[in-house]
Amino acid sequence: MSTGVDRGSASSRPDGSLNQPTKIFPTDPFGWIALVAAAIGFGSWLVLPVFTMFRDQWPVTDTALMPIIAVGLVLIAAIVNVLAVWIGKQRSVMNVLAMGLTVMATLGFGFIVIGEALGGA
Predict the structure, then answer these.
(1) In which domain, by residue range, is 64 found?
(2) pTM greater than 0.85
(3) N or C: which end of the chain has fewer CB within 10 A?
């Protein structure tokens, strides 16, 4: 009585399951690029406020422009991470975590920055 499914040839695991071992870090350069983009995006929220201290020397460091730049960097990181997970098939724990964090941060920070711009703050 065969079910027509050969469970032994599809996996090298002794229990016959098709699950792969969990990878913590990405195996592809695209996955690493996505992680670096996430680190730059989140790091911008720490580094860019420091530049506002030099407003007198560099006029480009305006306090209204810094959150827009930071949201833009996190948005780019979110797009790269979504592409890495969905199209690049990077299913490592770090890539999925970075994707979730950057997408949620983009939504949260984006709504805050847009609300401040509409409110005239």
Answers:
(1) 24-119
(2) no
(3) N
